[in-house]
Each structure stands twice: as structure tokens, then as C-alpha cells.
């Protein structure tokens, strides 16, 4: 960030334009007239070639925005694409010139500062995204005729409120898929219900199950069913069919009366769930599977258990698109002080942040999602999920929970902390990733616009034990949806050895030494978990046990009410 003047709470437009950083960019370019002339002349020449049809400019083969053949075969579309590419290239070149110390004539001229450069690159990303002709020009493919058991849903209008903190209509009140049938449909029951959470136990679908159960810890703002999205598109369903005992937490939607629920309260809820799971399974250990920000809770729980000498209760940990160190984000994609201050003030006034507001208070810190926070994930465009699951995913992206004021304040503090010098505590014990020595499995998203996959590598590196890291295509939601029976064209990368301190020189070294494997990482995860989940035993004849009885059928009352 470039300073207080660019990050005040005067509104999203001012943060987007960054007037101070823009002014400093203009001053920097004024000191480089030859660079400006060179770039300008090059742009004019390139645009002339585009107009004459002689330009050879083409997108990178990995640029999937222009993968449709019409961008090359249709003369008008080709010219629109080439105009965009040469213009975006010229703007990026000017910014490169502004950050260099050489003014293009051999003189040494001070370049744009690192913070200003980060802000201007963020703005350039947004502007490039807005002017890209691929987005408005592409019409969505017609949906195939729905199968009898796979209805196609019309997603809610993704426009949302127009201002950063306009509460508007609650997005999760819109109509959509039916819980228990179309989403969150894996059979099971609620076996524990408290004001903080419902604990779901899923019905075994095999004759034998592994000794050690898996507890899914969901995100804090979104609903839990990303892990149980839709039939045949559910990681929970896949784990159950792979002989794992699976439990999952479901958060209620807090109101103003719950304004005091902080990080401690959510960590305590996970600990209560761990107690219930081990009580039902009659085994002392459990594996934690954290989804997105649920991974933060899983790490905090394990850190607390380690601090009190009970780390043996966790058999293994799985982190799906979790980033423990926010400083590992792309430059310019960190928390915007003005946005978080405005959100904090709003939470203090109302007791909670409405789901869209809570999400927007975080998305204002990044580029792409700042413009299109509800954009369909890349997985949808590549056939990895069906049309019905696509509608379910869009419904999930809008199905947001309120965030209590105390939790929002704790998360801001946690995101602002340096992972190497943590200052956050939970239940009186410090949150220290290096205390987490149990085997870990981490999935990083290769194409996420908010967090680079290298932030996932940084998370794996912070852990105190060996971590098997997987790099999957898609953003933080799409990378998690790779059902094996639809993954014939999919692949993922996995390290040749676990990430530990000193195992790799950095993320580039990991990427170079990693191996590409065909198919879905879901199968890799179940195999990895199976090796750490004890022996096989007969599946329990009924759900619950030891005075914890089924209360309601899955997906429970907190999702359906």
C-alpha cells in the first residue's frame, strides 16, 4: 500500500484510482520522456498493423480467455483481441519503465517505490480485466438438457450491491438448489447441536471403515457444503465411499446478539466437535480437514492442543486452499486499511457484518475479485463439473453467513500478523504454525486471482512437520472440485518429497521438481489419508453413540432454516 491517502475510507472508487500513487507515477514518467515516446510510437505502429490485418500478435497459448477458435478466425474478433493485447502490453511496459532506475537514455532516475508499484500493478490488472474483449464477447454455452436426477438451476444475479458496504439484500436468501437433495446431499445426521455449531456424521457406504475419522472444518463466511456440493461432485461423498468415517461442522448464521463470538469461540466449537467425534468412534485421534479459512481454525486447534500437550489427538491435517501467512499474498493484494476500518466500524455498530459485506471487506484487497467477486470458477469452463453442479457452485458462492464483530476483529489481527512472529492467541495459547508437527496435506490453487499458489507453498513451509503439497488448476473454489469420474482431462502437480524446512530452496524449486499426475487429486488424498487413518474395521451399524444420538437428518437445521 502506498500510504494513508490512498487507503482511506472515502469509498471504493478512490481506493481503485489511488490518486497519490497515480500522481507519483505521472511524475516518474515525466522524468522518462524517451521511454514514453518509445512506448507510444511502438503502440501506434502495433495498432496500425492490427488495423491493416498484418499484425502477428497472438495470445499466450495458456491464455484461456482466447482459447475459442473464433478469436483467430474471425477478422473483427481477431483485431479486437490484438488491440487489447498490444494496449495492455504497452501499459505494462510503461509501468516497467517507471519502476526502473534507468530513464532509457542512460541516466539514473529514481523509480516508482515498491508500494506504489504494487498498487499500480493492481490497478493495471483491474483495468486490463475490464477492457478485455473476451469476457463480454463470449456467450455462455447452451446448457445441455437436464437429466432427471440432475436439474439445472438458474444462478442468482451476481451483480450484488453496488457500493463496498451497501448491505443490500442478503444473498443467501435467494432461491436455488434444495439442501439435502441437490446440495449437501450425502446421507447422514446431526449428532451434536450447540448454539455454535451442528456436527454432522455421514452414513458409511462400505462394509469396513478406517479407524481414524475425518472432521471437515468449513470456511467462516461461506456455508460448509463446498465439501459436499452436489451428488457425484462431493469430496465428502468420495471420502465416505473410500472407507473413511467422515464428520463435518455446520455453522449457524449469527445475529447481533452473537456479536461477541470471537476466534476463541469458534476454536472451542471445533474442540467440542473433536471430543464428540472421538467419543462416537471410540478412538482417541482424528484427522482435521480445513476448507479455505476453515484451515485457519484447524491450524489454531492443533496449535492449542500442542501447547497443552495433547497433540497426539490429531492424526493428520489437510488444508484445502488455506493460506496461513497473508504476507505471502501478491504485492498489493493485502488488507486495505481503509476498507477494513470501515467494515470494523460497521460491525461495531450493527454487531455483525452481513455476509456480502464481510466478503467485500476482504475482496477489496485484491485485483480480479475486486471487480467480479462472484465470477464462475475456471473449473466450470473446462467441463470438470456438470451443469447442475455449476449452478450449485454459484449458489454456494452467494450463500454467505454473517460475521460477528469480534470474529472480524480477530481475523483482521490474524491477517495483519507476521507468521514468523505471531502475536495471536487462542484460548490463552499462541498460534504458532511451527508447532504443527503432524503430517499435513495441502492443496494450492494454481489460478486464484487473490492468492498466488506460492502463498500455499509458504503455508506448507511454515508447518513444523512434513507436508505433501498438491497444485491444482482453478481458483480457491474451482481447484477443490475435481470429481474423479469427470477428471479424465484434468491433472495436478505433486512434490517429489514433502515440503519441510530446507527440502526445497523455494516455490520455483518445488515447481521444477514436482511431477504432473493425471486425474483428480481426490484419489491421491484418500490414499494419503488412508495410510494415516489406522486399520480397517467393521462399519458402525448406526450413527452416533455413547449418548450422542442422531437428532436431525443431514444437512441439519442450520443450513435449511
UniProtKB/TrEMBL annotation:
Residues 180-238 form the Poly-beta-hydroxybutyrate polymerase N-terminal domain. GO terms for biological process: poly-hydroxybutyrate biosynthetic process. GO terms for molecular function: acyltransferase activity. Keywords: Acyltransferase, Transferase. InterPro entries: AB_hydrolase_fold (IPR029058), PHA/PHB_synthase (IPR051321), PhaC_N (IPR010941). Pfam families: PhaC_N. SUPFAM superfamilies: alpha/beta-Hydrolases. Transmembrane segments: none annotated. This is Polyhydroxyalkanoate synthase. It comes from Pseudonocardia sediminis. The lineage of its organism: Bacteria, Bacillati, Actinomycetota, Actinomycetes, Pseudonocardiales.
Amino acid at each position: 500500500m502506498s500510504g494513508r491517502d490512498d487507503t482511506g475510507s472515502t469509498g471504493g472508487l478512490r481506493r481503485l484510482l489511488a490518486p497519490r500513487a497515480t500522481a507519483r507515477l505521472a511524475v516518474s514518467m515525466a522524468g522518462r520522456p524517451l521511454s514514453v515516446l518509445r512506448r507510444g510510437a511502438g503502440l501506434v505502429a502495433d495498432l496500425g498493423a492490427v488495423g491493416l490485418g498484418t499484425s502477428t500478435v497472438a495470445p499466450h497459448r495458456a491464455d484461456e480467455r482466447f482459447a475459442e477458435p473464433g478469436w483467430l478466425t474471425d477478422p473483427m474478433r481477431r483485431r479486437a483481441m490484438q488491440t487489447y493485447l498490444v494496449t495492455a502490453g504497452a501499459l505494462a511496459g510503461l509501468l516497467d519503465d517507471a519502476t526502473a532506475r534507468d530513464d532509457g537514455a542512460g541516466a539514473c532516475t529514481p523509480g516508482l517505490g515498491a508500494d506504489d508499484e504494487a498498487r499500480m500493478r493492481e490497478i493495471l490488472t483491474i483495468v486490463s480485466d475490464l477492457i478485455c474483449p473476451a469476457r463480454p464477447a463470449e456467450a455462455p454455452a447452451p446448457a445441455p438438457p437436464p437429466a432427471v436426477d440432475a436439474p439445472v438451476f438458474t444462478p442468482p444475479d451476481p451483480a450484488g450491491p453496488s457500493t463496498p458496504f451497501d448491505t443490500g439484500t442478503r444473498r443467501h436468501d435467494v432461491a436455488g438448489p434444495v439442501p439435502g437433495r441437490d446440495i449437501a446431499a450425502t446421507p447422514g445426521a446431526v449428532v451434536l447441536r450447540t448454539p455454535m455449531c451442528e456436527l454432522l456424521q455421514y452414513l458409511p457406504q462400505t462394509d469396513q471403515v478406517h479407524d481414524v475419522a475425518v472432521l471437515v472444518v468449513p470456511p467462516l463466511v461461506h456455508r460448509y457444503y463446498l465439501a459436499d456440493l452436489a451428488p457425484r461432485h462431493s469430496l465428502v461423498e468420495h471420502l465416505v465411499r473410500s472407507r473413511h468415517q467422515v464428520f463435518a461442522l455446520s455453522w449457524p448464521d449469527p445475529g447481533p446478539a452473537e456479536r461477541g463470538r470471537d476466534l476463541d469461540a469458534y476454536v472451542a466449537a471445533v474442540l467440542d466437535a473433536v471430543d464428540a467425534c472421538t467419543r462416537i468412534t471410540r478412538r482417541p485421534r482424528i484427522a482435521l480437514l480445513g476448507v479455505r479459512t476453515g484451515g485457519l481454525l484447524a491450524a489454531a486447534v492443533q496449535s492449542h492442543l500442542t501447547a497443552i500437550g495433547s497433540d497426539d489427538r490429531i492424526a493428520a491435517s489437510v488444508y484445502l486452499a488455506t493460506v496461513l501467512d497473508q504476507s505471502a499474498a501478491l504485492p498489493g493484494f493485502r488488507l486495505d486499511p481503509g476498507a477494513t476500518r470501515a467494515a470494523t466500524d460497521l460491525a461495531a455498530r450493527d454487531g455483525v457484518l452481513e455476509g456480502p459485506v464481510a466478503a467485500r471487506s476482504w475482496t477489496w484487497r485484491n485485483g480480479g475479485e475486486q471487480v467480479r467477486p462472484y465470477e464462475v470458477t475456471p473449473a466450470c469452463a473446462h467441463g470438470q463439473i456438470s451443469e447442475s453442479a455449476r449452478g450449485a457452485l454459484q449458489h454456494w458462492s452467494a450463500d454467505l453467513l454473517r460475521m460477528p464483530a469480534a470474529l472480524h476483529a480477530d481475523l483482521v489481527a490474524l491477517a495483519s500478523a507476521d507468521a514468523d512472529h505471531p502475536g495471536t492467541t487462542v484460548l490463552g495459547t499462541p498460534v504458532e504454525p511451527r508447532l504443527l508437527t503432524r503430517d499435513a496435506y495441502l492443496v494450492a490453487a494454481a489460478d486464484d486471482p487473490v492468492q498466488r499458489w506460492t502463498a500455499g507453498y509458504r503455508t506448507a513451509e511454515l508447518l513444523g512437520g512434513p507436508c505433501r503439497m498438491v497444485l491444482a488448476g482453478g481458483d480457491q473454489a474451482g481447484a477443490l472440485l475435481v470429481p474423479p469420474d469427470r477428471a479424465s482431462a484434468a491433472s495436478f502437480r505433486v512434490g517429489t518429497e514433502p515440503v519441510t524446512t530446507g527440502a526445497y530452496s523455494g516455490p520455483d524449486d518445488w515447481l521444477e521438481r514436482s511431477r504432473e499426475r493425471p486425474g483428480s487429486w481426490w484419489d491421491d488424498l484418500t490414499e494419503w489419508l488412508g495410510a494415516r487413518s489406522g486399520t480397517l474395521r467393521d462399519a458402525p451399524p448406526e450413527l452416533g453413540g455413547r449418548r450422542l444420538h442422531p437428532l436431525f437428518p443431514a444437512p441439519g437445521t442450520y443450513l435449511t432454516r
